Amino acid sequence: MNENEKKPGWKMIMGGIALIIVLFIGIKLVFWGLEQVIPKQGDVQSVQSSQSASADRSSGAEGPSFCVHCGKELPESFEWGQFCPWCGGKMEGEG
């Protein structure tokens, strides 16, 4: 066997195993952090249902409550097809 070719020693094998373990733990920590930041599915549904309930209680005309372009709150008298008073973007279509 040529002297330039070396068999992987136990140090390389242990280093590879340690690298896999560190990466596995790192990925677990990332997903744990995301679970802490992003709300659970049940929380999202309760927020959406409360928003739809408040929209139903408003005046009979269905209109957006926030601008889809800039995200600012729109007046209660706002209807689809009008322009946003904040950014000037046209609010087209329903829903």
Write the layout of secondary structure elements.
Blueprint: H1 10-37, H2 41-57
Would you give an account of this structure?
This protein has 2 helices and no strands. The protein is an all-alpha fold. It starts with 9 loop residues before the first helix and ends in a 38-residue tail after the last helix. The protein is rod-shaped and about 75 Å long.
Please tag this protein with its features.
47% helix, rod-shaped, 95 residues, mainly alpha
Structural class determined from secondary elements: mainly alpha
Helix content: 40-55%
Q: Note poorly predicted spans.
A: 57-61
* Separation of the first and last Cα atoms: 73 Å
Radius of gyration: 28 Å
Shape: rod-shaped
How is the biggest beta sheet arranged? none
Tally the helices: what do you get? 2
Beta-strand residue percentage: under 5%
* Average pLDDT over all residues: 75
Q: Care to count the β-strands?
A: 0
SSE topology string: HH
Q: What's the short story on this structure?
A:
The protein has helices at residues 10-37, 41-57. The protein has 95 residues and is mainly α.
